[in-house]
Design brief:
This protein has 353 residues and is mainly alpha-helical. The protein is built from nine helices and five strands, in the order H-H-E-H-E-E-H-E-E-H-H-H-H-H. A three-stranded antiparallel sheet has the order 1-4-5. Strands 2-3 form a two-stranded antiparallel ribbon. The longest helix has 60 residues, at 169-228. It is found in: Membrane.
């Protein structure tokens, strides 16, 4: 009894040797390094496509919202001339308008068209000409009390993406066609992004699963050779568990799961996290900074989940190991009893029944 207690205390005092993250890939060769590089590239691209999807999807929604009247306004220009900065901004926007009308064709300067098939009977001012003449005409309109169509692609009239479209016949046609053009363009971006997502996801999963199987098969052989090369005293003094066959199969399965599945998921979600915050800070940094305050809570919850799952996994592995030892002992005992019974039958001529 005392020897058993001392043995248990020695087992408790024995410290488990920890393995570094790079030690997980100790059985990799050149082909595995290539597969891991391709798998890392695929998983990183796959993780970065989700934030880009929301960017293009949001642009497509804003295109429909913008071009169908949610952000279109008919305004009086003098109401917007409260500062010189706004007037200068409108003059710079007029150059954009000039380029638009230059491709749409020239209409008579200052002509007023009462009624529009697109905007429901409102009066628009049409003016064009060369680029410089158009800017001058636009500046004169800023000093007058005439209505002008202001098309805004942002959060309102004060948006920096203000666009001015004095409508003519050709301009009305182009303006009616623009929603279709931009919607198709953003939809094509989503299609291209989906194809990239498909290829990168397949590359990441296939490469990591393949290298996981290759390295695990090599680890099984190394594990078995290491056990067979041990001295007999190792199994009596240093071995913590005698069920080596179970550990050769179960432990390598855990290693394969870590290399082939979990490593790819970690890289994917890490790149998705980084890409999401980079795009968020470039788009709306105030809202992204507010979201960043929740990250410590998510990290604490994720860490607690990992600790709980690790503890449950260790208990499950120990229970399966004990069950395997009991099954092995029962099998050996049954075999010994069967051997003795058969020997007794043939020596004493006892009937089998």
């Amino acid at each position: 009894m005392q020897n058993d207690r001392e043995a248990k205390e020695d087992k408790k005092k024995m410290k488990k040797e920890s393995v570094s993250l790079m030690g997980l890939f100790s059985a990799a060769d050149k082909v595995d390094y290539i597969l891991m590089f391709l798998g890392t590239f695929g998983t990183c691209v796959h993780g970065g496509t989700l934030p880009l999807f929301f960017v293009f999807f949001g642009k497509m929604l804003l295109t429909w919202q913008s071009f169908y009247g949610f952000y279109s306004h008919i305004l009086h220009i003098p109401g917007l001339r409260s500062s010189c900065g706004r007037t200068r901004r409108f003059k710079s926007e007029a150059r954009v308008c000039a380029r638009f009308l230059w491709s749409a064709g020239e209409v008579e300067d200052g002509r007023i068209n009462s009624g529009s098939g697109i905007f429901g009977g409102r009066s628009e001012i049409r003016f064009s000409g060369s680029g410089s003449d158009l800017v001058q005409s636009f500046h004169r309109l800023c000093l007058a009390s005439l209505p002008l169509l202001v098309w805004c692609e942002g959060t309102g009239v004060e948006s920096l993406n203000l666009r001015l479209f004095p409508l003519g016949t050709t301009c009305a046609y182009l303006l009616a066609y623009l929603p279709r053009f931009w919607t198709h363009k953003n939809a094509l971006y989503l299609v291209y992004l989906g194809l990239v997502n498909l290829v990168s996801a397949w590359m990441g999963v296939a490469c990591w699963m393949q290298t996981g199987e290759r390295q695990t098969a090599r680890l099984r052989i190394i594990y078995l050779k290491s056990i067979l090369a041990k001295d007999i005293t190792f199994f009596d003094t240093e071995a913590r568990d005698s069920n080596f066959i179970f550990h050769i199969s179960s432990d390598t399965i855990l290693v394969q799961d870590a290399i082939g599945d979990k490593t790819g998921h970690v890289l994917r979600y890490l790149c998705q996290f980084i890409a999401g915050f980079v795009i968020g800070f470039l788009s709306v940094w105030q809202l992204t900074l507010l979201t960043l305050a929740v990250v410590p809570l998510i990290a604490i919850a994720g860490g607690g989940y990992a600790v709980i799952m690790s503890t449950i996994s260790k208990k499950s592995e120990a229970a399966y190991a004990d069950a395997g030892k009991v099954a092995e002992e029962v099998s050996i005992a049954s075999y010994v009893r069967l051997h003795l019974h058969v020997k007794n039958v043939f020596t004493n001529k006892v009937p089998l029944a």
